[in-house]
Amino acid sequence: MSSSEDFSVAENDIEALILSSYDLFHDGKFQKAEKVYEKALSLDFENADIIAGLKCSKFWIEREQQLETLGTDEFAKSEYLYGEWKIFTEFICRLKTPFRQGISVIKQWVFKSALSGYLNASSDITSSDEELLLRIGKCYKGMGDYDKALEYLESVSRKKRDDPEILAELADSYAFINEIRIAKAFFREAFFIDPQRVNIDFLESELIVRLIEKLKFLGYSNKVLKEWLPVFAVIWGVFNVKRELRPLELGKLKQSVFSLENRISDSDSEDEKAVLIPRLINRYLWLIDHYIIKGETRKKVEEILRKIRIIDESIYNQYIN
Prior knowledge:
Blueprint: H1 3-6, H2 14-26, H3 30-43, H4 48-69, H5 74-92, H6 100-121, H7 130-143, H8 146-159, H9 164-176, H10 180-193, H11 206-217, H12 222-235, H13 247-266, H14 270-294, H15 298-311, H16 313-320
Helix pairs in contact: 2-3, 2-6, 3-4, 4-5, 5-6, 6-7, 7-8, 8-9, 9-10, 10-12, 11-12, 12-14, 13-14, 14-15, 15-16
């Protein structure tokens, strides 16, 4: 609309100015959006959304300049945008307002632009390039096309069946189409295999975001947050889809438990223990679920509960109550 170019029509209408900025965000015209927000700020310098919009505009103006240096290399531009989205998510966490609509429009532009480059970079997107397929799937998810995202994510999952990042992306996409039971199962599998390989910056469904926000409120962050997430998700009744382990899986789980117990016992590093303890507790919880599903004796369950109580009585109390 013309008012988004020179904002003459709505120069005193803050709401109209903000709405016009969304049109500019959609088209990646961040320098023009910056001018709109500067005008809006002159009308209301305390409006949190205006301040947030101005900061977001400036953020992407700097990135536009970097994109120009990449010339015609579409794949490099896509990789740059893909990487900068993670930085942007950290940036928006510091804003004093959610600014949801503005961020949603920017996200559409970022992933649409990145997707275009990825698709143009390869004439054979059904090839064995799992990383490219994953990128394309994540871009479709970022654009809100969850069916298309699942098409690519399921394709790459068949090639890399136990990849925690792919499982988490599948879970996130299933959550968006309201397949909650499948989403919970995939999330739990992903955080069991290796929480550190789950890229939580790209997870957006309410199911997982609420867990992350609650853990941040409790003071957890970074690596430790990822390790505690599956533990608290079980305690809070979120990860409530359980399954029986196959004999080979059970053997590997017991071996992992034994290894973690020894590492914790031998470690003098509190930082290391901060990561290993929740990882061990998560494995204890999987063992308990397996024993209950198999109808094993109460003694086996009580033995695992006793171990949990020894290493973290607070978690033990929350789990049994």
